């Protein structure tokens, strides 16, 4: 990510080293980092912006690169944070499912097994598996509706 923004190997290594030092400092201080990826992206973004500012605005091209880098890094960090929240919420919602529904949902959606395979492994009728999965999906939709609406805005 840093290399795409700076396009200079030496500067990229310098920024990466600075980000790593900031991470070690935060770790030593016991700083709570909720989403490591978002934190690292934010620190890298700030370091890149500092580099551009130190160089001054040598050209409008650099200013364009800075604006683009800021937007992309901010968007990347926000998207990663959003995905982390959605994964946590989904995991919590799946844990609330009745065991039969949870097992079918996990096997089909997360493990990629076909209903035929699940039926042969569990000895359960395919129609029963389909019904359990449907109930699981309906429950998950209802349980995750609020967070879906929040992220959909």
Low-confidence stretches are none
Approximate strand percentage: under 5%
Shape: elongated
Structural class: mainly alpha
Q: Provide the residue-averaged pLDDT.
A: 80
Alpha-carbon distance between the termini?
A: 27 Å
Polypeptide structure, described:
This protein is an all-alpha fold. The chain folds into two domains: 1-87; 97-153, Orthogonal Bundle (Arc Repressor Mutant, subunit A). The chain has seven helices and no strands. It has helices spanning 2-6, 9-28, 36-55, 60-96, 99-110, 115-122, 126-152. α2 (9-28) packs across α3 (36-55), α3 runs antiparallel to α4 (60-96) and α5 crosses α7 (126-152). The radius of gyration is 23 Å and the shape is elongated. It starts with a helix and ends with a helix.
List the helices and strands and how they pair.
Blueprint: H1 2-6, H2 9-28, H3 36-55, H4 60-96, H5 99-110, H6 115-122, H7 126-152
Helix pairs in contact: 2-3, 3-4, 4-7, 5-7
Summary?
The chain is mainly α and about 150 residues long.
Keyphrases for this structure?
mainly alpha, Arc Repressor Mutant, subunit A, about 150 residues, about 85% helix, elongated, 7 helices, 2 domains
């Amino acid at each position: 990510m840093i290399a795409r923004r700076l396009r200079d190997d030496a500067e990229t290594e310098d920024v990466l080293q600075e980000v790593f030092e900031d991470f070690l400092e935060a770790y030593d201080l016991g700083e709570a980092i909720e989403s490591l990826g978002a934190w690292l992206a934010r620190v890298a973004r700030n370091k890149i912006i500092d580099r551009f500012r130190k160089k001054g605005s040598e050209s409008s091209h650099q200013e364009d690169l800075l604006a683009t880098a800021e937007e992309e890094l901010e968007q990347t960090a926000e998207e990663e944070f959003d995905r982390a929240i959605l994964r946590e919420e989904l995991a919590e919602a799946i844990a609330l499912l009745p065991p039969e529904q949870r097992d079918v949902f996990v096997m089909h959606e997360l493990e990629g097994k076909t209903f035929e395979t699940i039926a042969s492994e569990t000895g359960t009728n395919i129609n029963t598996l389909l019904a359990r999965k449907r109930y699981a999906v309906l429950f998950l939709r209802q349980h995750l509706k609020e967070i879906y609406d929040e992220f959909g805005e």
